[in-house]
Amino acid sequence: MFKITLVTSNYDNSYTFNKICKNLMEEHCGDFEFSFFKSNAVDKSDEEYRKLEEEIRTSNIVYILLHGGVSSFKKFINLKKIFWGSIPFFINTTIDDENREFVEQGGVPAATVYNMTKYYTLGGEENYKNMILYTASELGNKKYPYEKYTYMRWEGIYKDGNIVEDEKNFIKKIAEEPMVVAILFHGKEWNSKRIKVVDKFIEELKKLGVAPYPIFTNSILKPEIKSKGIKWVIENYLKYKGKVIPKTIINLMAYSQTIFSEPGDGTSIVEKSIFEEMGIPVIQAMSTYQNRETWERDIRGLDSEALTTGVYYPEFDGQIISVTCCTYETIRDEYGEKKIFIPIDERVNKISRLAVNWVKLGMKKNEDKKIAVILHNMPPRNDMIGRAFGLDTPNSVNNMMKLFSKMGIKTSHEFKDGNEIINTIIKGVSNDKKWLTSEKVLEKSIDRIDKEKYLEWFSKLDKEVQEKIEAQWGKAPGEFMIYDNVFPVPGILNGNIFIGLQPSRGMEEKAEEIYHSTDFIIPHQYYSFYKWIKEVFKADVIYHVGTHGTLEWLPGKEVGLSDRCCPDFNIDDIPHLYPYSINISGEGLQAKRRSNAVLISYMIPALTLSGEYEDIEEIDDLIKQYYLAEIGKDSKVIDLKENIIERVLKYKYDLDMNITEDEIRKNYSLFINKLHSYIEELKSSVIKDGLHILGEAPVGDRLASLIHALLRIENCGMMAAEEAVGKSLGYDIEVLKENPHGHNKIGKTNLMILDDIRNITIEIVREILGEKKYQTIVEKTKEYKIIDESYILILEKNILEIVLPKILETKKESKSVVDGANGKFIVPGQSGYPTRGNINILPTGTNFYSIDPYKIPSRASWKVGVKLAEELMNRYIEDEGKLPKNIAMILYSGDTIKTNGDDIAEALYLMGVKPVWLNNGDRVIGLEAIPYEELKRPRIDVTLRISGLFRDTFPTLIKLLEDAVNIVSQLDESDEINYIRKNLKDDIEKLLEDGYSFNDAENLSKVRIFGCPPGTYGTGVRVLIESQQWETRDDLGQAYINWSSHAYSSNYHGAKLENMFVKRLKNIDITVKNEASVELDMLESDDYYAYHGGLTAAVKYASGKEARSYSGNTSDPNNVKIKSLKEETARIMRSRILNPKWLEGLKRHGYKGAMEVSAMVDIVFGWDATAEVAEDWMYDRITEKYVQNTENREWIKENNPHALMNITERLLEAEQRGMWNASKEKLDELRKIYMSIEGDIEEYEE
């Protein structure tokens, strides 16, 4: 008897194999035995795995046939350890490099594997049957008659249920059609699994008046199976006489067609999209492997396999991510369960409408096009119009107006600058309710949406959605933002362009509910705004400008949305473009996946060194004098020491360094070295020099400073700029860093030499862009000379040939804006931090994508994660004298993407677990425990608070982290070296006492990943702070727990387990969040205080004590740093916020520059409210610099008077809440200025 054990995924041809095997057993009575297993069932059930092991032991061969890689089959590693080399394995996955490895290692002769692979790849009942007979003949004791494999038709044109035979005439005829939409689907499915879906698309497209053009292909060129591949299809089916036939493509095929277009490959990302040359939009229509019932109720929208194959990979091609178009349904018969895809009719209609609208956008005359440009306005105040990370939004929109006008879009007015756009909006109707009256709305709104019109739109919403909106916001049209029974339309018209303000979520109105509820749907006015854009203004295209708005974060499925999801019924079928910061990866993907957006990446702002100013310059000069005096045994050293101590205390540096005057005097030599290091760190900190304006590259000194920042560390094989200059001067930078306080004969420490090299480097970069007189630059110093100019010449070559062209190509942003308005394809590209060794992601202007989730953590990020963990533990030992037992980490999706998983690696290493990678690559196929003998320390318990975006983006990593907990919990180790196992035992014991079953108690005890409820985002904290609906820090901690206690694991998807979350928090020793780039810091985003600050408040509320809270810094992966939150706050305060350079940079940007100052005050306040990190001197200095300083105050008032009002109001609130012990003089002046500006604004608004 020949026995085959088959392990298949949910998505493979198990039905066909069942049928064949049954027939073979009947045909060859007693000769064959088959056992079938599903990989996911084996992963979930120990009993199922045990059965599989038993079956394999008596098998002649094991077939492992997986849709996806072996990384999706977690128990494979166990099987490999037990059976590898003793039982033959035939493994075929959709990852070619895995298949190649297993040909060599699977125990089946290579020639046999080749033929088996050919049978399997060609597919179909006959080939599968003959594959089994061939296998048995080759590996068994009996020969069976088998046929040679038969070839199927892989490429063709589909029409009316059949393959088109006369292709030449068909192509000629369809090429004459004015509006053609191609439908691409897989060659295996032209008459099977997905054909009902194809037929439905054909039907819908015909109804919409366009010619459908259905084409099937195998994607990959494989001469051995006679498949021609996607490249051939493009040249021979999608073009006629060199001209592209369709105006848009709807793609039903999974994975990346670009990757597959490389002959015989499927393993790596190629540089150019296969669709780029065609220049037309390609829309990915996703399939879920869930059935209809599951999909309807499941908040996830797509299963994890479909998320990877139907979203991640197609994004590499620059495809537009749409919605789920079909579900996977079961048909049962005598052979078992047959699976086919059934269309979701309404979703097919939506995708078809979207495709047709992209076609129309490309065909319509520019003079007839209407464009909606949406500015974000969160919070909904008049100082925050056009809020976007790193972008001068008003001036960027003004640039867009010029581009649109140039291409022929009708405009009625040419704006002078961005300030004029904002002022025009504010003098009309905005979102700021404080300044809105019925009279103003009726008089100045560009249009009014009356009750009758809105009720007509509202009635078309899904009944369940209607009920939910009315339950929260009252019977339509409600009362929020409605004036005399009409909704205003916030924004202005400029010819055929509408510049609008994205409406308020209204959560500030519901702030008191944040403590006990997490379920907030949009108000009526939000929906009315987007319906007005579609139905009244009739926009052909929408641009949301800058990172980021609220649309893509509204309630609904996480991806693969339905018509009941808020983002879906608001954006509807309008083509959607979205300029987005290249270094905010995760949030950009959210816009792509939840609002069908095509991103246009924009450049990071220019960066510069913080340098010296005011007290930093004063102390730095004294330190230099001190070292010089000390080495020369100068008597002035005593006076200098006292001067330094006096200034350190005067300027509160003792608070930054957490040191007392007694401690300073007790060990002054140690202190002066630490102070010297700190001052140098402040001077060398990288800060923003203004903001980016869409389509504009920096020039002059700003360009030189940006180049220096891009080459601050090694970047894509290019030596760091300072390292190159150091070598040219005869210094090794790393040697100097290793002994920072060593000094030369004239009293210069190595830190001072490093500072000199840094300053010389900046001058040399300027000179590279100028006259290239390097000797002259160095000779000016009189202390240094060029010993080996070759290093500078290499730097020159790198800058002029690589770095500079990439920066100058920022103009591609403008091209993409225009291409989008013309309905053209936007080229894909990578995202991330260009200053972190990733300059290859430039130039900007691309529709950026994510990374392969199965390659996290990468080998490189594992090394960084290990360093992070070790530095964190060492810092805690330094602070507390012992190792931490319980750590809470914040995990962001964007950071995970941009670092390839540093934080994941850190969490795993803390637990004492490491990844198992495939071959020498980065594909993670499992985990294994690090033996205690190697680890040499206890395994630390890690609780993870994930963002909502992480939940949506990385279900694979949630499972990976859960697997780590499971592995550690099963180790036979003592409580003293395995804190996770100890905590699990204690939790289970308590839960059993509380009446839980053992199974439930075990599942609950293992939960370590918590987040906000499914379909929601955030922590609830920001809204409370902005609305002032809180009294104490405990209130914020309580709200954080309410929003964060939702568990994520194999057993729970968002179940609220508040008791378990609070139990975890009670024992937390450390909270930590890592920052991976100099391009942003923790005081630049309200998300940071909402997540990490909120976590510190929650730990204090739950436990009654403060945890140690740290910020990790991996901006240089080779030099990982850990600081306390207070230390990091002080560093940012001194290097950026109080730095004249930062303000001068912002002054170039008028309204938006002043907004950045207002936002900074909000964020400092938020951090202090949640984590108590701001000292009195910080509030004092902010007040002095931005309010009491007449020149700065007048600049803010002139450009953004509402910003000045918010700054003064927030500072007064800090004093009223006891967060700031302000002097009477400061308070009196603040109140006086507040009253004055409020009066000025009232006049201005009128």
TrEMBL record:
GO MF term (any one): cobaltochelatase activity
An example of a Pfam family matching this protein is: CobN-Mg_chel
Q: What is this protein called?
A: Cobaltochelatase, CobN subunit
* UniProt GO BP: cobalamin biosynthetic process
Record-linked CDD domains: CobN_like
Domain (CobN/magnesium chelatase) spans: 118-1226
Q: Which InterPro entries match?
A: Cobalto_CobN, CobN/Mg_chltase
Gene source species: Fusobacterium ulcerans 12-1B
